[in-house]
Sequence to fold (645 residues):
Amino acid sequence: MWKKIIAGLIIGIGIIALSSYGHAQKATDNVKVEQEVDLSKYQIIRPEKRAYSIEEKIDFINGIAPPGTTITIEVYGTTDLTRKNFNLLVLPSEEDYIEVYSDTIVSGNSGTFSKQLELVTGINKVIIRFGVEGVPAEEIIIYVNPKNNKEIKRPNNLMDLLIQH
Amino acid sequence: MKERFKTFMLISLVSISLLLTKKLWIELPNEVFNFFENRDKAYSVSYLLSDMIMPNKYLLNFNDKYHTLFYDDSKHGLWTNTQKILATTLGSDDIKITDISRDEFSTYNWKPSIVFYFPEKINTYLLAKALDVKDPNLIVDTISNVKSIYIYLGNGDPFFVLSDDERHKLIHSNSIDTEGLRQQFLAIEQDAINQEKGYNFYYSLKDTYGADKDIYVPYEMNGTVPIVYVENQIRNLDLKGKREIAEKFFEKSIDYIREIVEGNESTIYEYNNKVLKLNVNGTVEYYHPLDETVKKRNLYESLITAADFISKNAGITKGMYLDKFEEIKVDDSVGYNLTFKYRVRGLPVILGNEEVVDFIEIEVFNNHIRSYKHFIRKDMNKVVNSIQEGKKMLHSFDIIDMNYDLLVEEYLKENKAVKREEVALNEVLSFIEDINLSYFDPCLKDIEDELIPVWVINTVNGLYAFNVYNGSLVYEKTGK
Fold:
């Protein structure tokens, strides 16, 4: 009887010890994954906000990523044919977006990347993918709301007159 | 009736004879005045002086996001249109001057405005005189040198900010009228933002990567730099051409000038204690020792003398600008050493000739030119396809990125205590003092030498010129 109890205890302790070792091993692996991808090395510097409006169709993004990282920048726009009058408060659904263009850039020796974006009027969604497992893609919503053109008196010289006619 | 006809004929003949005789030797009073007017034009040093003191780049700030930059203002004439407004302000009694901090001034680029950058600090009094301000006001005493001039073109009262990089003086005056300039500025803004005419947007390294300095760089680049071929002005001259230069310098016929041809084909001319040497490498050297001791130096008078001398003798003055001036002392006399550089198609030219540092170097003692040296390479104005096929121009941040390791090395030379792995991006970018688009003249050929378009990065350690098409380092000049 005693032999059975002792054998049972040894097996029980062995199982507990093994399972805790297994858990410990799993936790260590997680730490390793986190250590491999240092998220602070993948950042968007500009723009600081993730949703904002501008008046012109040109915007600029830049950031840092280790040299040689391939970064994909996807720009989506909305046609707004449904006349839903999208804005930052009334955002389009996923189906309303159409891809305007996609561009791939590689971060340079200085560990930086940058892109001057050409946007469309209305809501634009910009997705920046770092192409590295564990680094989440960044999404930026830019609302292009053009202002009325300022009234400009152009220089009244011969060349301007010829261009106008 | 017959008598009347005779009288009429007589008057007509007298009038015709007077008219024809006048062509030969009579000067009428109004023509005497015209003669003086023409003379003023020909010797108008003030005009030349204002040409010499020219900004080397023009930053247009549309708002906090959009900025563009020009190196060549010939298309827009923004500086020409600002000169009059600035002259009125520098001569006005009604001004209010306020000090602003560097950080505050930095935010002014977020407002509609133009900033004119000079290649070197310019004496403010001199600037005022070059703009024909008869009696400059206290601005010239408050800030004795200027490196940049900012003019506000937004809504509300216009103002200037004169800066020497360390101090920034905000100047309000009721006499500032910017309406014409503002309309011109708005038209450029419209074209730029609508992307109609190939404008490039520039972004501050301070805003984009936290650098210490407000240097504006493009991250996308449209267009190319024109292909330019140059030739030596002197080398390709025959003996007759050389003699003509000597006659021009000494204002005497060649019969009175002594001529010596050296073995290496350099030619020396001598007249009345003045010496002129036309070197085989294309340089012209002139020397005229001081007749008397100059005990007090006058920069304005010295510059006028230099301007007069250059306009008479250099042959090319278009695009030439005053790069720097240094005080010098020779024996007991005090004067200035002036150096001039020049622009081709609006871009400054850097010389790759080790023997020659600057295009024009003059030692001037008020009204006396002691020495003069020039090395002029003329634009041949060759008609070539200005678009370089298959070549895309790199933007200046590309150049920084491609040569980042070199910049880090240079930064570490200056900051020996810092370890390489500790060097931060913004520190390296702060190490850069300025970035400009220029031409590099390799000086390899006397004729048809192609200029290389370069991005020039100035750092604390020196100057580095990189080819704008492939990013390779083509020239460096280190040492402070």
Residues 26-44 of chain B have pLDDT under 50 and may be disordered. Chain B touches chain A through 26 residues (CB under 8 Å). The radius of gyration of chain B is 27 Å.
